[in-house]
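Lecture notes, continued. The same structure-token format from the folding unit now serves as the input rather than the output. Read the line below as a description of shape only.
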């Protein structure tokens, strides 16, 4: 939450994400959301209410249910099933292209919009692999610091 506030106030810069790293990201479903696929091929997501004091008070006052049910269409269900942490975004795009006969640009645009909405609502998260290159040369050791930038330290 602090990072979100800092990003909003522009006191902290968001990490740079290039297209290559985004395509290698693994979307992962929220563990608190239960879901099932019905006979029509649509997924029903059961999202529990937030466990905050003001939400509990409002739900008692206005008799709100303690969970929400969200029904996804065929394409949303297909994407939701692939958000298991084993498929990258690039693989999901290829799957959408084959399943729904879309161009790459159409599949990318619709997937990114859908993923953005799911991410904002905390229904999914993203595991982004680090780029550790095993053959990269080791960084040289920094030189010992000199006092005041120009005087060597006395021993």
């Amino acid at each position: 939450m602090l990072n979100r506030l800092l990003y909003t106030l522009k006191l902290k810069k968001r990490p740079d994400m290039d297209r290559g790293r985004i395509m290698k990201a693994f979307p992962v479903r929220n563990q608190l959301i239960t879901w099932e696929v019905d006979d029509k091929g649509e997924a029903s997501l059961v999202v529990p209410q937030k466990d905050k004091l003001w939400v509990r008070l409002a739900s008692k006052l206005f008799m709100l249910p303690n969970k929400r049910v969200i029904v996804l269409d065929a394409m949303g269900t297909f994407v939701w099933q692939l958000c298991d942490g084993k498929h990258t975004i690039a693989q999901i795009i290829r799957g959408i292209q084959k399943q729904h006969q879309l161009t790459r640009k159409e599949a990318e645009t619709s997937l990114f919009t859908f993923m953005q909405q799911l991410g904002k609502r905390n229904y999914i998260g993203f595991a982004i692999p680090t780029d550790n290159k095993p053959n990269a040369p080791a960084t040289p050791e920094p030189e010992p610091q000199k006092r005041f930038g120009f005087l060597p330290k006395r021993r």
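Point for the exam: The radius of gyration is 23 Å.
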